[in-house]
Amino acid sequence: MGEGLRLQAAVRFVRGEASSVIARDLRVSVRSVRRWRQMWDEGGPRALRSQGSASLPRLSEKQFRQLEAELARGSAAHGWEDQRWTLSCVKTVIGGRFHLTYTVQGVRKLLVCNGWSCQVPARRAIERDDEAVAGWVKEVWPCAEDSRWPVEPGSSLRTKPDSP
Q: Would you say the pTM of this structure is higher than 0.90?
């Protein structure tokens, strides 16, 4: 519920209006109005002001630069078997290094907001020989391409004879 609604309710508390009337007019629950009234009774209008974001503190610019340095070291330096960074790995590093808790989607948002993008590595066999592949494409593939059945007019199926 917004601070504006709570402050509107405070003006009406001063007038002595019933919680049910305030709730109906502001289109909120009576329970919320009663909670606001209690806060107002205990601390006045200042108690109804917004307290700021309820989320945990986020990484500062300096901390994010430190995180980038950790990411540059590679995931193997942090105990993972390969060099791929997953969002959950980054989340673990943030928790261990900065003692902050992020969700996986929160890590994604943090990285994207700071100019990072998600990458999917190309899957290639370790044994792949790029020179042999290039030679095959240049020498063998054209021969294989020419040996395909020729396309003849009159039939869309190769097994069906031409119609008279």
A: no
